[in-house]
Design a protein that fits this description.
The chain is mainly alpha-helical and 568 residues long. The chain has 27 helices and five strands. The protein has four domains: 2-165, no CATH class; 170-383, Orthogonal Bundle (hpI Integrase, Chain A), CATH 1.10.443; 398-490; 498-567, no CATH class. The chain has helices at residues 2-12, 19-28, 40-51, 59-72, 86-98, 103-122, 128-165, 170-173, 175-193, 200-217, 222-227, 230-234, 264-276, 278-281, 301-311, 321-335, 338-347, 364-375, 402-408, 420-425, 433-451, 461-471, 480-486, 492-496, 499-506, 532-535, 541-544, and strands at 237-239, 242-247, 258-262, 513-517, 524-528. Strand 1 (237-239) and strand 2 (242-247) form a beta hairpin. The longest helix is centred in the first third of the chain and has 38 residues, at 128-165. It is globular, with a radius of gyration of 29 Å. The N and C termini lie far apart (79 Å).
Length: 568
């Protein structure tokens, strides 16, 4: 009983801190120190989580256990001697509380440690060691009870506040975007349009706003903002008037790719950051799209969102990325169909059944349609068209928006951009803002078209140049080197399911060649039943070139004279 009272006192008396202050307190107390990842106990625990428990995203849990072990044993290889140090264990939990961690986070630490001990218990015989481990588990469970009560009280208080004050709506959560948009567009116009150098403070603020657009406007987790890479930005694709970006490395429970659909206006904002701000913060080989002032990956999108609220003089009021997602869920649940709900869950990268059914994920057009559907949520759409606040050339607040410009002058792969006279006669501004965006859309469409020719094999620069020449493009066309840099091989499942490849294998009638099944790892392969030169004699040049195995040109009968371009 004294132990329980001690823990209650510690838990109830920690002060509320901001996320940045919590991190600083944890670092100052050495709470982030970890054991070497190659430690035997940690390696075995991670293998247990992945193999036996099927927990794929388990690194955070392993790190929590590693921090606990390092606190209990500051030096050397971690062992199980900490189970006799009950006083130090209570000190560790108190240190977590005093650093400002919430009761929910402390409960998570305890859960991870208990699961680690259960793994250790299962790997030893139920002798004296097993009994000792079970006693320590019971000790932790006793410590956990008052923390759980504190967490329940916090949850009840939060629900009560929501009943009395009302939950923040999507409209409420987007207040910071509406309030800061004028300043944001002013920075964009000076930086990207007028090519005027802006201050470091404005550059950082511009990044905060771009991050907030992803979290509040596109309902993405902070992990997606932190994990977005330059490669993913460069490989964005224009689909139905929006740019699709797939983010693979996001530290969340979801196991599928987070995909967002940016409007052309938003794409221009992010391109402005990529061209005018990011290069000045590059310090090393970090491939992350959003970089901190130190040139490293941003540590917390949530903290940046909080700083954006503070800079705009707006009370945060619980308007986090999680809150805006919950507010959107409430609206979706009452007004969307089941199919639309599934598509929204996929767009928000929910950790649900959609993550385990890869082949049922919505396609690019469905993703764009879902993004447009989310624009229509109550309290959100009216804010997309604000009254004219500036006449600067980068602002889209004239009488017509770019979507109207697209309808009047549809973006086409082989078309010509509208002239200044045509734009003015149609009622659009005289500046080149919409004109430049039209050309960017066409440029991206042409990039995608060229890449579609080379799904499985990487092309040569000469072949790309001949294809561009064949298309007849003389301006606003990608360079061969750009296409080579953007090219990525098709995924394994896409190659294995390609009908042309399957037909080529099952319907081939080449003499002297056969398909043979090797061992389970190598699978099936093509073998020659006669001399190789005889076996390949009946293969046509275009068929032979589909194999990326270093073709021996002497196997061709005269066709090698026409294959010099392969050496480029």
């Amino acid at each position: 009983m004294p132990l329980a009272c001690f823990v209650v006192f510690k838990v109830l008396h920690f002060q509320s801190r901001s996320m940045g202050t919590v991190r600083e307190a944890m670092q100052a107390g050495g709470m982030y120190e970890k054991c070497p990842p190659e430690s035997k106990l940690l390696v075995g625990f991670k293998d247990h989580l992945i193999g036996a428990l099927q927990v794929q995203n388990c690194q955070q849990e392993v790190d929590n256990v590693s921090r606990f072990l390092r606190y209990m044993q500051p030096e050397g290889e971690p062992n199980l001697e900490f189970m006799t140090k009950t006083t130090e264990t209570m000190d560790y939990m108190s240190a977590l509380s005093n650093s400002g961690l919430s009761a929910a986070t402390i409960l998570n630490y305890m859960k991870n440690i208990i699961r680690f001990l259960q793994y250790v218990k299962g790997s030893v015989d139920m002798n004296e060691d097993g009994i000792k481990i079970q006693k320590y588990i019971d000790f932790l469970k006793t410590m956990r009870k008052p923390v759980a009560r504190k967490h329940s009280g916090n949850a009840c208080s939060t629900r009560s506040d929501r009943v009395v004050d009302g939950m923040p709506t999507v409209h409420d959560c987007n207040l910071v975007l509406r309030s800061g948009k004028k300043r944001f567009l002013d920075i964009y116009n000076r930086m990207a349009i007028s090519k005027i150098v802006v201050s470091p403070t404005e550059k950082t603020w511009y990044r905060y706003y771009c991050e907030a657009v992803m979290m509040l406007r596109h309902f993405q987790r902070p992990a997606a903002v932190e994990g977005m890479t330059v490669r993913e930005w460069v490989n964005r694709k224009l689909t139905d008037g929006r740019y699709l970006i797939g983010i693979k490395n996001h530290k969340s429970g979801a196991t599928h790719v987070a995909t967002i659909a940016l409007t052309l206006e938003e794409e221009a904002w992010y391109q402005g950051y990529y061209e005018c701000i990011r290069p000045e913060f590059v310090r090393g080989e970090c491939d992350c799209f959003f970089l901190s002032a130190r040139g490293t990956q941003i540590t917390s999108g949530s903290s940046d969102l909080l700083r954006l609220h503070e800079s705009c003089g707006i009370d945060h009021g619980g308007c986090t990325s999680g809150q805006v997602r919950r507010a959107a869920d409430t609206l979706v649940a009452t007004s969307f169909t089941e199919t639309q709900k599934q598509n929204v869950a996929a767009y928000m990268c929910r950790s649900d059944l959609m993550a385990d059914t890869h082949y049922r994920r919505p396609g690019p057009s469905a993703i764009v349609a879902t993004a447009v559907l989310l624009d229509a949520l109550p309290g959100f759409t009216p804010e997309r068209r604000l009254p004219a606040q500036t006449d600067s050339p980068g602002s889209c607040m004239s009488g017509k928006e770019f979507s109207d410009f697209q309808q009047t002058f549809p973006v086409s792969r082989d078309g010509q951009p509208p002239t200044k006279k045509q734009r003015v006669e149609a009622g659009f501004p005289e500046n080149r803002v919409y004109y430049d965006r039209w050309r960017k859309g066409q440029y991206a469409d042409r990039q995608e078209h060229l890449l579609s020719y080379f799904t499985y094999l990487k092309p040569s620069g000469g072949r790309i140049e001949r294809l561009i020449s064949k298309e007849g493009w003389t301006s606003n066309c990608p360079k061969a080197q750009d296409i080579l840099d953007m090219w990525t091989p098709a995924l394994k499942y896409a190659i294995e399911s390609d009908q042309n490849i399957l037909n080529s294998c099952s319907l081939q009638k080449w003499k002297g060649l056969a398909i043979k099944s090797f061992d389970g790892q190598k699978g099936e392969g093509v073998i020659a039943t006669t001399h190789f030169t005889e076996a390949t004699r009946d293969i046509k040049v275009d068929t032979e070139l589909k194999f990326n195995y270093g073709v021996n040109r002497t196997s061709f009968r005269g066709e090698a004279l026409h294959l010099d371009w392969l050496d480029e």
